[in-house]
Design a protein that fits this description.
Layout lengths: L1 H33 L8 H7 L31 H4 L5 H4 L16 E7 L2 E6 L2 E4 L3 E2 L2 E6 L3 E5 L3 E5 L5
Antiparallel strand pairs: 1-2, 2-3, 4-5, 5-6, 6-7
């Protein structure tokens, strides 16, 4: 019989523990309604809390119309060959190298000198040359920024046209 009363006592405690959280919630709710607590929100925060957005009308978008006559923003200029390039062959325009039947030519004109890193090239008598090349019996010994050293029975400096 003692075992029976212990079980009922245990059952009573379990029932109280099961109901106790609900009772605490009800008591705390009644307490918050009866007692006037100060609001933790400022006036601006209350205003934001009470905000209700207005109804916004959506305008239906119209389909885009693509026209066939649209042109790109970049204009290209069509060039003609006759305007950009000479009508005569370059061989007719380029200066001719004088040929004197093996005779050594020591005179020459230097039209252009290009020096880039290790490469040095020049245009002598209308022919593109580099150091060590021969033109009209002249050997190109050295190319500098404004003159060329040529060897032919002797040495002579040829200066760039317009520089002396």
């Amino acid at each position: 019989a003692s075992n029976y009363t212990g079980e009922t006592m245990m059952d009573g405690r379990l029932k109280i523990l099961a109901v106790l959280p609900f009772l605490l919630v009800i008591v705390s709710f009644i307490t918050t309604k009866v007692v006037n607590f100060e609001s933790a929100l400022t006036a601006k925060e209350k205003q934001v809390l009470e905000f209700t957005p207005e109804k916004i009308e959506m305008i239906e978008r119209q389909a885009l119309v693509v026209k066939n006559d649209l042109k790109g923003p970049i204009k290209t200029i069509k060039s003609t060959l006759s305007r950009d390039f000479p009508s005569k062959p370059l061989s007719a325009i380029a200066p001719q190298i004088a040929r004197n039947g093996g005779e050594k030519i020591i005179e020459g004109t230097v039209s252009l000198i290009v020096i880039g890193g290790e490469k040095k090239i020049a245009i002598v008598n209308g022919v593109v040359v580099k150091e060590g090349d021969s033109v009209g019996g002249m050997k190109i010994a050295k190319i500098e920024k404004d003159r060329i050293l040529i060897k032919s029975n002797g040495t002579k400096w040829l200066h760039l046209e317009g520089i002396k």
